[in-house]
Every structure is written in C-alpha cells, then in structure tokens.
Amino acid sequence: MDPIQVVQMCKYLETIYVSGWQSSSSCSTSNEPGPDLADYPANTVPNKVEQLFKAQLFHDRKQLADRRTWTAEQRAKTPAVDFLNPIVADADTGHGGITATMKLCKMFIENGASGIHIEDQKPGTKKCGHMGGKVLVSTAEHTQRLIALRLQADVLNCGLVIVARTDAEAATMIDSNIDPVDHPHIKGATVPGVETLAEAMRAKKDGDWEKRAGCMTYPDAVAAAMKAKGMDSAKWLKESLKMSLPQMQKAAASAGFGNIHFDWEAARSVEGYYRIKGSTEFCIERAIAWTPYADAIWMETGKPILSQATKFAKEVRGVAPHQMLAYNNSPSFNWDTSGMTDEQMETFIFDLAKLGYCWQFITLAGFHCNALSIDNFAKAYQTKGAGAYVQLIQREERKNGVETLTHQKWSGSELVDKMGNIVSGGLSSTGIMSAGVTETQFGAKH
C-alpha cells in the first residue's frame, strides 16, 4: 500500500502485490477514492508501482552503503535483505482494446513491475472479483490480450511474468458468443415462444423470467431430457464441454434428443449481453485455452475451498503439466465461515503449493493491517495519550527489532550526512544527524 509496507514486507515475503482495489480506494491519480470498478485513470496502478519500486531501490542502496562499512564477521551475522523483491501488479482488464493494453503494459514495465495480471472481464463493466454483475469477454479476446502483453514485453526486452485471471466462476454475462470454448456455458431459453428477457425487463416482469423460459445452458437442457428418460447424463455433460453449439446439437440429435429448443438470443440482457452459467468447469476450459500464453493462471473464487482448487489444478495441469497456477487468499473471504480449522488455515497455502499454485498472495493484507493498526492506536490515544503510543507502538518496535523505531536513520538521513561530509571535505556543521538530533536517545540504556 505504501513505501513503509513494501520495505518491511521484503524481510519476510518473496513478492509484493499491488492491488487495483487498494489503488482505487486510496491512491487514484484523480484523487477520488471509490470502489474497484477500474474507472480510475489508467496510470493509477503503474504510478503506485513506481512509488514502491523507487522505495525498494532506495533502501537497497542504503543497505549496501551500510554493509560496506561492516566487517566480514558483521555481514555474516546479519544476512542482507532482498529489497528488490518482484512486484506483481493489477492490470485489471487492460483498460481498453489491444493498443490500450499494450500501453498499460509498457507503463508497468518502465515503472518497475516484474509481473502483471489481467482478467477476462469487459472494460467499462469491470467489477471487483468479489462483486456481482460481472461481464466476461470471449475466451478468444482475452487470449489476444495475453498475446499483446507478451509482445509488448518482448519489444521492451523484459522477462515479464504474465498472470491470466478468470472470473468465470461467478460471472453472469458475456459480451460475445464468438468463441466455441464459451458455448457450453451460455444460457438460453428452452421454452418456445417465450418473451425475451429484454422484453420482460422492459415490461418490468422479469422476476421469474428464467423459470418461465426454462433458461439454462444447452448441455443442461439435454441432460434434463436424459434424466426424464432415466438416462445417466454424466458422460454427456463432460464431453459437451469440448463442443461448439452446432457440435452439441449434432451430438444430441444422434443420441435421440434433436428436438430440444434452445434460444440464447432470447436470454440476452437489455445491454445485449449473453447470460452464462458461471462455474469451476468454465474456469478450467478458459485456463486450458490460455496455457500457451500465460506464465501463471488464476481462478478468482468466492470461497477458499481446497477441493475446488484441487479440481482446477488437476484438470488444467492434466493438459499442461508445466502450467504454474496462482491463488488469491483474499480478505473478501470470511475465513471463519469457510469450514476450516485454524490448523487447516495455517497449512492452506502449503497444501495449495503442492498442487502447483506457485504464486499465492493476499490482495489487501496491507490495507487491512493499516486500518486495524491505526484504529487501535487512535482509540487508545483518546484516553491514554502518549502512553498509548509508547505501549502499542514504540515498545513493540523496540521489542521486535522494527527499524522504524529510529525513523531518521530508516529514511536515509545518515547516508545523506555522509554524502554531505564527502562534498564538504568533512567540514560541514549542519549535518542532519549532528548535535541536537533526538535519535541519539535510542542509543541510551533503558
């Protein structure tokens, strides 16, 4: 969230994640906070990346300057911190078409991002992954976005890590039926002659339209007909995931179900979007389609469910064994209602790692840490005054060896003093850390 967090995290974690949600809520370049709809200026997240990357560079230089004054024994006792941990940032939907996506990618690379993720939602209707009303683009369109990112990275001679994200588990609409990969998941009316969804909405009687229209996917419609005849539909439902609508209709007809009515045009929303059935299976099919183009693939989920993550990993890596996966251990989950014990929560990331989830992250840990910490301190300061600061912060910094205890030194003041002395030939009397600096108090016994 800020240069303080990025530096403190570097001591313990391997990558830094920059969230579009957090950027939208706290650092939009329009200075207007709001929900995660990706309606902030396109340079918002790249600018945050640049701020954090420069902080990493600064503290890396400061550390190098310090360690070069130490003995070999001192250096051996105190391992160096890797302040240049890779930054992976949120590219949302690319903020437009192919050229906009490439320009965004260029900004990220030039500002210090080592990786970016891009999702398969439609620009203009994009929502946070844990909001409702999400509209997908076709699998083919998102493939082009991934190719555009790789092309831009290649042009800049950058080994950018590209993470393809799909929101197909919980999305309800898609803007196109052009790609056969999407066909098994698009819903249509199965009752002939029913009014369209758009007509029903204009007449303000859409509340039970799906029930009246028998709205479902074509595979589900055939499966329902099979069930009515006492047939097992499991094989059909699995095989249909690899078929286009014409192929499904031909296969259904050969099995004796050629008279099923299916009209996906009737189910379109007033905006013209097709309705879809979101599912883990849809995520899997999209992920498989993107394996040639993405370094890692992320399925955005509604809950932290190990069995779901296992299914996704096995299906995708069954086709592409090399494929790395990503997982969002999101604060949007109510982890205490997940059904996991505390022990299972503690082992969750390691259980996922065994499945191939190579990059795991908590999208808004910094945001929530910040809010909790300052809320607790401000509440206590109201009644305990300076005692609250000493008890909750300063003593805890000292006890845990947190470098911000001596914040002047943390900010690089000693390094600037050294530079000033070099320039002045050691004659400067106005050094930042010279007589009068209060930070000497922290060297006193206490």
Supply the key terms.
9% strand, single chain, 3 domains, alpha/beta, TIM Barrel, 3-stranded mixed beta sheet, elongated, 18 helices, 446 residues, 7-stranded parallel beta sheet, 12 strands
Would you kindly provide a written description of the structure presented here, covering whatever features stand out?
- Strand 11, helix 14 and strand 12 (357-361) form a beta-alpha-beta unit.
- Strands 1-2-3-5-10-11-12 form a seven-stranded parallel beta sheet. The protein has a three-stranded mixed beta sheet with strand order 4-6-9, with no helix packed on it. It has a two-stranded antiparallel sheet with strand order 7-8.
- With 446 residues, it is an alpha/beta fold.
- It has helices at 3-9, 20-26, 44-67, 72-77, 98-110, 139-155, 197-202, 209-213, 218-228, 234-240, 245-254, 280-290, 306-319, 342-354, 365-384, 386-400, 407-410, 413-424, and strands spanning 16-18, 87-90, 115-119, 135-136, 161-166, 173-174, 187-188, 216-217, 274-275, 296-299, 324-328, 357-361.
- It contains 18 helices and twelve strands.
- The protein folds into three domains: 3-175 and 278-363, Phosphoenolpyruvate-binding domains (TIM Barrel), CATH 3.20.20; 187-275, no CATH class; 369-443, no CATH class.
- 34% of the residues are buried.
- Helix 9 runs antiparallel to helix 10 (234-240), helix 12 (280-290) runs parallel beside helix 13 and helix 15 (365-384) crosses helix 16 (386-400).
- The mean pLDDT is 93.
- It is elongated.
